[in-house]
Amino acid sequence: MSVCLTSPIAIIVAIIISLLLAILFYKKIIPKFFFKKENGKIKHLLEKLFTILITIIVFFLLSYITFLIAGLFFTSCSGLGSYTPNIFAGDMLKSSVNNLGLVEIRSTVFTNGESLNSKSIASYSKILSVEQICVLLGNSIQNKDEFIVNQQGKVIQYEGSFTQNNNLLTLCDRGNEINESISAWELEEKHGIKIDNCNLTENNENKYCIVAIVGEA
Q: Is the pTM above the cut of 0.70?
């Protein structure tokens, strides 16, 4: 999956441009269009306060706008391989494991040769062991025949020639309750997900998570 980061240069450029424009606004525009002399006198205090207030507002607006513009020129994107489905799944599990019984679905990208591997996911999650993770292949995905199950519940590899967009689904619960969560979310009906091929004992009360490749529900 591609990850794009805006360089700090964009922030610096935005601040400098905004500051220069704000000074111009303060020195030239406000005195010319906002204040008029009355009987040869200007209410200096009110003028200064109003000018400073307007200038601050303008500065922040300009900073936001110029940051967006500068970001177009100072944004770099890493390649597709830099944020693999395994890393992505590991990140998802960091939140799913603390939200038992809740389904999380996010879009990801598979390129030729990439796999969904329970051992790698466990390593990236930093909170689960490989015995607590089962990887599954839903029947709702596009080009399902291009995904090869190398080890049931352990490894699914993508062998397609082209980049494939799919969704990753995560669900965590107690081992003896995860089937109930699967039923509650109708995951078998929607995506063909069931844990028959997962290495899960019936009375397991430890946290257990599934990571599934799915399509649209």
A: no
